[in-house]
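Q: Start with the shorter request: fold the first protein.
A: Done. Sequence, then structure:
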Amino acid sequence: MVTLGHTAIGDIALKLEHLPNSPVLKVKLGSPHDQITLTAVKELDNRMLFLDANQGWNHLDQAMNAISIVGEQRIVGIEQPFHKDRWDLHRALREAVKVPIYADESVQDLEDLKRASGAFDGVNVKLMKCGGLDVAKRMVEFARQEGLKIMLGSMSESSLGCAAMAALMPFADLVDLDGPWLISNDPFHGLRMEDGQLAVDGPVGMGVELRLPSLLEFHPLGA
């Protein structure tokens, strides 16, 4: 999966052209331009879509409208449509549609995950959110026991962080480790997309290596 971030409508075609090939396109929503964005993406791209509202919706109607624009059959899932504390709204949406609903901000750790079943169909496990691979592995194992779908996600992190999470890919239903394609100064290299699949080049460790210092551009912050 690769991500189309919040983008001016006139720039969507260009952004889509520069994204790596992947079977699923994640579309960031939760703005006043959701309807126009989804209509444009639907016309320009034929991939399956994953909708990420980032807590940006406040009413069921907003989610239902987005689903109606795209069509249920083309949506792989919807991520965190409502505020992280609105478990009631997530539960209501889950009961109203057949599209899988994934938790992100609502599930920060294993304790949150224990109450996810019933309100969500799946969970987005992120290395930088849960605090380490050991915790991520425990969350993945628990989610599987609870019958929840598993998505491996990333923040705006380097190839190192995403390559570390890639070790859990055999347990995942969806993989959203495209952080390196969302930053311009990745200190590591070796993570790539090949025919829509995530792959690493290196034979040892995480499979990525530190770039030569001369190839990196650093800007000091503060005094």
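Q: Next, the second protein, separately.
A: Sequence, then structure:
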Amino acid sequence: MIGITLMVVGVLAFVVGIIIFFYSKEKKEVTQNGHPLEKIIEIAVADGVLTSNERKIIQQVTTENNLDFNEVISEVENQISTLNTDSETELIDYNKKNGDDFEKFVVQKFDRRFFTIKEWAGDKYVNGNYAKTTPQPDILLEFSLKQKTVAFSVECKWRKSLYKNGIEFAKAEQFQRYKNFQDSMNIPVFVAIGIGGKGMLPERFYIIPLSETDNNYIHISKLNKYEKDIQSNFFFDMKTNELK
């Protein structure tokens, strides 16, 4: 009787061992061999910042592969903590610097012989209090040619990479404010978008009419229609009210 019991226990132990082995192997394969989860973790740790988008993607991948989301996040946070950096501050500083640099990059694309900057708004606010210019697009300009002048505005957004094959260039309420500004001022608004690289020199550059967007998210298929050569300056077509 004892022998049978030991045999049963041995079989159960063997089965459990097999299950653990294959689970461990699957988990290892998920985090190795170029799997997206490994790449995401590498990026987060390298930057010293675990962004909300990275957290969402990690949650999705761990769910799809039956992994412990909290365990993976804990490991990422532990690795980041060893870098001895203030991640939240670094993220704010990193995005702010690249955002400011991208605005400067865009401004330099306007030839001063034809374009005049009328306003260059800042995004400074606290507890819901902000300057009158903050809710409007970043830059208000005038284009002058042959004694004719046209006003328009440009909102500048730099993003490190695409998210879900596109970018969210503003919050929903910001997008609506830009629409309201365009309607109330009766001038065209354009969204200048830089992706990748640095704010001062993005890898890809786009200029999209706000009137061509239905919401605050733009898919890459639409972005590609408005890609602009990074080396070339802007020109405003008075006949079509297009910024090219």
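Q: Describe the second briefly.
A: DSSP finds seven helices and eleven strands in the chain. The longest strand covers residues 148-159.
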